[in-house]
Design goal:
The protein is an all-alpha fold. Helix content is 81%, strand content 0%.
Length: 69
């Protein structure tokens, strides 16, 4: 019974609250670029994290502390 209520609450959270911006974009008269702003935001975050990861990898290789296992 409790698990059923938890899953219903999670479903309600996503459909009633977190998808409001997506529904707004879907119902409005927006072009492709503005409708995909969330996707562009995630892409920028991913690229920043990838650049940080590569920078850290280069630093570990220069210091000789890279795990070569």
């Amino acid at each position: 019974m409790i698990a059923s209520n938890i899953f219903r609450w999670i479903g309600s959270l996503f459909t009633d609250l977190l998808f409001i911006p997506f529904n707004w974009f879907r119902k409005g008269d927006f072009d492709w670029w503005s409708a995909n702003t969330v996707n562009w935001f995630f892409l920028v975050v991913l690229l920043v994290l990838f650049a940080y990861w590569m920078n850290q990898s280069v630093q570990f290789k220069k210091n000789g502390t890279e795990d070569k296992a």
